[in-house]
Amino acid sequence: MYPDVANKLCSAHSIYIIPMPTFSLKLNKNIISIAILAVAIFTGGLFILHNVAQTHRDKIATGFLCDLLITFPLCYYFIIIRPLKKSAKSLLLVLTICCGIAYLVLPAHQRSLILQVRKLTVVAELAFFIYAFTKIKKIRSAYKIHQLNFADPLYNLRSSMADIFGDILPVRILASELAMLRYGILSWKKEKHLPKNAIAFSTHKESGYIAVWCILMVAVFVEVVAFHFLLMKWSHLAANIVTALTLYSVILFIADLSALVKRQVLVNDDTIILRTGLRWRAITTRDNIAAISKAVSNVDPDGTFMKGAALTSGINLLITFKEPVMLDKLYGARKEYKAILMSIDDTKGFIEALDLHSSVTRPTRAVVR
After folding, report:
1. How much is the pLDDT for 257?
2. Which parts of the chain fold into alpha helices (H)?
3. To bridge 266 with a disulfide, which of 212, 273, 278, 297 should be the other Cys (CB 3.0-4.6 Å)?
4. For residue 228, what pLDDT is reported?
5. Backbone angles phi, psi at 313, to 5 degrees
6. How far apart are CA 174 and CA 332, in angstroms?
7. Which of 115, 111, 81 has its CA nearest to residue 96?
């Protein structure tokens, strides 16, 4: 058994420690800061605009417009683009979104000014879209090549876009978002055929994820309807925006369930593809597996194991590796792990497919602190 893992497994009890998925601390701070600023500017400006006296509304609207078109783009530049060394092209997208929001929420007589600002950016946007359109054919060609090797829409789209635009975080995020929409909107579409000689193992049945998902969907539907009518008393626009964002979130929830059912763990000759829906994927070989331990209880998080089950309560298998494996998470995060805790419905069949009977330990119960 892998040494670092063996030190955590006692004769009677086992302490399983797993990491929470994280981006870099600096990236987290910057994204959280700009997100808080965006929410503060939008909600604060909208609240003041609808509650100030009519005589001062034009001045407030002008200030709100300046915050949307000047203050926030500048903050985005100094918080995201400059410290994280990101492409300035994203600033154009941010400015476009700000113009759209301003056009929707500000008084009608100020929309002419917004349209004038949009004229300044439309040429640059048009040039960018023409450039992107010319790359679509190349992306499709690269995608088909990757699909021939292995039919995985998420990672093949990400790889093909990386081949054209470079393997940078915005490209990985965009590819992940497109994949989420594909699994959400086209949830009825069947997955491509499995590779020849591949054995598939589902990961969602034993944990009861579908039942939990249905309960969450009912709760979301009830709450969004009630919240929509509550917001309607204050602002029709705000109610429609919140409802639209909630419906988009529902599509992502559907994508998560659809991908979880379709994207199963695969054992194909010497290659093993471990994954849970769209959330993460790791590729390794039979020879790299050091041991498999059956886990029958929840565990505490740390930096040694990866928590890979759809639900924490569904964890039933600990897979340790001789050499760390690179795990690709949704939206581009990557990290190496020496062990993965996950849920596989047919653990016996999975173990037999790997032909690792001698490495399988008896079920152990993890100590929960």
Report:
1. 92
2. 3-6, 25-51, 57-66, 72-76, 82-84, 89-105, 111-149, 153-165, 169-185, 209-232, 236-262, 347-354
3. 273
4. 80
5. -70, -15
6. 9
7. 115
Residue with token string 């539907």: 221
Length of the chain: 369
Q: Running DSSP on this structure, what letter comes out for residue 366?
A: B
The values of phi and psi at residue 271, to 5°, are -95, 140
**275 contacts 269 by C-beta, under 8 angstroms:** no
Which residue is listed with tokens 């529902």? 250
Residues linked to residue 272 through DSSP beta bridges, in sequence order: 267, 284
Give the residue among 249, 262, 255 at the shortest CA–CA distance from 182.
255
Judge residue 267's burial from the number of C-beta atoms within 10 Å of its C-beta, 0-12 exposed, 13-18 middle, 19 or more buried.
buried
Low-confidence ranges of the chain (pLDDT < 50): 1-26, 357-369
What CA–CA distance (Å, rounded) separates 241 from 97? 14
* Close Cβ partners of 69 (under 8 Å, ≥ 6 residues apart): 95, 98, 99, 102, 114, 117
Coil, strand or helix at 108: helix
Torsion of CA 279, 280, 286, 290, to 10 degrees: -100
